[in-house]
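pasting for ref. prot 1 ->
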Amino acid sequence: MHRLLVCFSIFLGAVLLDPVAKAATSTSPADLPPEFTPAEILKTTPVNYPYTMSARGREGVARVLVSIDEAGRALDAVPVDASHRDFGEALARSVRKWSFQPARWQDEAIRSRLVVSAELRLGRSIVILTRTDFTSNRIDGMTSPRDQFRVVRADELDQPLRARHTVAPGIPEEWEAEAAELVGTVMLDFVIDPNGNVRVPGVRSADDPRLAALALGVIEDWKFDPPVRGGRPVYVHVAQPFVFDP
């Protein structure tokens, strides 16, 4: 029987994506491994334009991170940064209804993550932006720093993150014969939302894809105290290692 050692650590850098999502948002074909085909947007839905923004006649830009399953369905989406939080939340709600061509690895459809960047215009129309189109300068030109939104780093929180509930992955019975081989470390990264829920988890690295599947299978059941910055609940990006030790 495998024993799982779980060490919780906080990733202090900016928002990072798993290698699949990095490749999917690359602007250079030379950056893509030959075995990988990135996910693509197939169908979008109108954005329910934020009333708080339309009432002031404001347009904006936003970027969200979306998790896509093997069938091309959007599993979840969270805002990453935006000229105003309301734009980020509105785009995320819309993207959760979009359909995608799933990413493929060696001709097999795989679960992946993708960054979607868009400009939101009055009249509920959106313009999909490439990674080079979406820059901090574009946000700065559309709004004041006071209104800008981004996922924060863990070292910016008022208090250290605290997990309320964790679940350790176990080895399925059908894998017991291979248990001695299931040794290694998996590093997941994900976003914790203002309610303390784990969102859009992805694999940053893994010694064995089977271990990665086990870690992904439990991480969304974890629950945290709401992350707070400046007295207000926020989105925060973290990383979590899972160490499988026989």
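and prot 2 ->
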Amino acid sequence: MMQSVVAPVGILGFGVEGQSSLQYLLSIGIKEIVIMDKNPIDPQLLPKEIEIKTFTGEHYLDGLKECVTVIRSAGVYPMLPELLKFQMNGGLLTSQIEIYFQETKAKKIIGVTGTLGKGSVVSMIAHILKSVNKPCEIGGNFGIPALDLLKTDSPDRVVILELSSFQLMTLSISPSIAVVLRVTSEHLDWHHSVEEYRDAKANLVRYQKKSDCCIYLQDSVHATAIAKQTKALTLSFGHGA
């Protein structure tokens, strides 16, 4: 499979997810790495064997000029003018979830989204699978960062991902099984409108194939509207389902 990133690679945001991205890049032999974060970066979190460029503070996005690919941490808004300019100039903006979908060997990925209840449903699905001795792993917004899942990747394991609107906003690949819970509105301090928030959620199903499956809460007007955007088989649950 073609590598999903081309060096030099920037890591935008260096919290838990950004640190996971760094370990992934090192594991695939990438040595030209740029880290960008508004906050100071602890040098003890950086490898000593290679020199990594860091950009922090008010002008942290100046590091984009050094990059061909940028891995955006989920909490960084992807429509920042600097990121749009980076892409217009030929740069590749990607994310942990996008790289995971491109690189994983897993044949079954269950993606779960909704305004509330995602973590509970992900845990419930994992419990059911484990009760019938089906290997599974939880990741994404809940559990293990997506790229860490590649360390123990297997075609026989079911992967259950909790996916927030932050992660879904730039996603152009959908999981084989999508679960859409009640969708209302949230994170409007981050999203520019409720429409943008709901449109991001729809990426969970937007790129599914006919052989895939979408399970949705029919009691939710917005979950139902999202389900109408898939090419996959749809199954509903809720009152009257």
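The chain has seven helices and eleven strands.
The two ends are 41 Å apart (CA to CA).
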